[in-house]
Structures are given as C-alpha cells and as structure tokens.
Amino acid sequence: MHKAGFVNIIGNPNVGKSTLMNALVGENLSIITSKAQTTRHRIMGIVNGNNEATGEEFQIVYTDTPGIVNPHYKLHESMMGFVNSALQDADLFLLVTEVGETFKNQEVLEKVVKSNTPIILVINKIDLSDQQTIKDKIAYWQNQIPRAIIIPASATEKFNIDTIFSHIVNLLPENPPYFPKDELTDRTMRFFVSEIIREKILLYYQKEIPYSCEVAVESYEEQAGIDKISAVIFVERDTQKGILIGRNGMALKKVGVEARKDIEEFTGKKCFLSLHIKVLKDWRNSERALKQFGYEV
C-alpha cells in the first residue's frame, strides 16, 4: 500500500509557517525573515519515505502558503488566492498559530474547522513562552477545535518536529504518489534564485522598500563549474531605486554578495550573479505585471 497527500500549511503572517515547512522537508525551500508577509506564493516541498512500523511507502506534499491578510493591493488578492486554493485541495491541514496570538481571519478558520479534512494544530514558538501560558493555549484550542490534534512546537529549535511528522504519516490517505520520487519541489531553480535575492532585500532594507520589490531572473546560464545568472529587481518608484542602490552602490552590492553565497550553497556550484534595478510603477496593482511575475490574477 502507498500513502500520499497534500499537507497544506495555513496561518497568520509571521507565525513560522515557512520555518516549519523547511524543518519538515529538510531543505530551505521557503524564505524566512522576521518580517510579516514574507511568503507570496504557494510553495511545495515533497518528502518521500517508508513507514518502518507498517512497511508502507508514502509521499508527503507540503504546501507553504502566504500569511492570511486583508488585501490592500491586487498582489494581496493573489496571495489570498493561493490560500483559498490550499483550503480546497488539502488532505491534511497544518494549522499554525503561536502562543501569543489569536487567529485573525475567522472566515478562513471556519472553513478549516467545518471541512472534513483532518487538522493538526501547531502552537509554534513555545520556546518564547512559559509552561502555564502554553497549557492555557492548548486548552483554548482544544475547546475551539475539539477534533484537532494539538501539538506545541518550536520550528526554530526543531522541538516536536518528529511528533508532527509521525502524525502526518499516520493521517495520510491511501494514494499513489503525485510526483516522481526524485522531485523535491514543483518550483524551478529560477524561482528559488529570485526568492533568495528577495530574502536579502527583506533582511537589509526597512519599512516599505522590501514590500515594493519583486525579483525576476532574466537569464540563467549553466556552465561547467559555474552558473551565470542575471536578475532584475523591480521597484515602484525612482526614490526606491536610489535607496536599493545605496551610497556608491554599496547596499545593492551587499545584497548581491549575500545572495550569491546562498545560491552557491543551494545549487552546490559557483555562481556569477548580476543584479539590475528597474522601475515598474504600481506593479502591485497591475494585472499584467502580476501575471508576468507568476501570480494568479
């Protein structure tokens, strides 16, 4: 018998969904920063294995989704489109919250609760709290969703990750694999390169700048021993372009140097990375631009 299913990760922004998926997959597929709304797309990570207790083979297709937001741009509408699609095709929900928060979007929560889909509710970041607060939060969620399996965890500390994984394997439905067994994700290398660059922008710039940026890989040339990559960072205004470049180009140079290091670690090859900046006014509200960047509109 073979088990397989889509395990869709749902939750508010900045509760650690991407960190949790990366820990479960064992690879850094989703970018992680302390800023909210880091994830913009629906990103899949695929894990294949064999259940030693039963002998069953399995394939887990994890989906990291954007944090739930009230849309202010067409970009946000697309991000919520990814969330809504994940609500519809899940074989198992990983509902991620944290000790110090409540679930903001009741409509999404109700859809999860009213579905017949199994729910594992992860109370993340317990390393930042105390025992009594954690017990109170477990009791709260047991009352809110009695049928859910509730697991306190710390994705950053890898605490209870094995427990979550074991429950996932047990709850998977009987299915043939959805993807070839040697695939890790449904995304291309170009996508991950653009996400690595965007992660550095999120890390090194403040306020609105990171949220006004989108990254597109214009060319990706694989050569023996080295990949030559050219990428464009799109911004909405000329003033943002100047901030990104920085004095004597030092800010952009830092982004390039740090992104190149991570790309080389991800690909296992040397990399020559060329970065350019272009202004694309109001791209977050442009259907044409959003389609160009791979968003659903």
SSE blueprint:
Layout: E1 2-11, H1 17-25, E2 43-50, E3 57-64, H2 74-88, E4 92-98, H3 106-114, E5 119-124, H4 131-144, E6 149-152, H5 161-171, H6 189-204, E7 214-223, E8 226-235, H7 238-245, H8 250-267, E9 270-279, H9 287-292
Parallel strand pairs: 1-3, 1-4, 4-5, 5-6, 8-9
Antiparallel strand pairs: 2-3, 7-8
Helix pairs in contact: 6-8
Give structural notes.
There is one protein chain. By secondary structure, the chain is of the alpha/beta class. The chain is 36% helix and 25% strand. It contains 9 helices and 9 strands. The chain has helices spanning 17-25, 74-88, 106-114, 131-144, 161-171, 189-204, 238-245, 250-267, 287-292, and strands at 2-11, 43-50, 57-64, 92-98, 119-124, 149-152, 214-223, 226-235, 270-279. The protein has a 6-stranded mixed beta sheet, sandwiched between helices. A 3-stranded mixed beta sheet has the order 7-8-9. Helix 6 (189-204) crosses helix 8. The longest helix is centred in the last third of the chain and has 18 residues, at 250-267. The radius of gyration is 20 Å and the shape is globular. The model has no long low-confidence stretch (mean pLDDT 90).
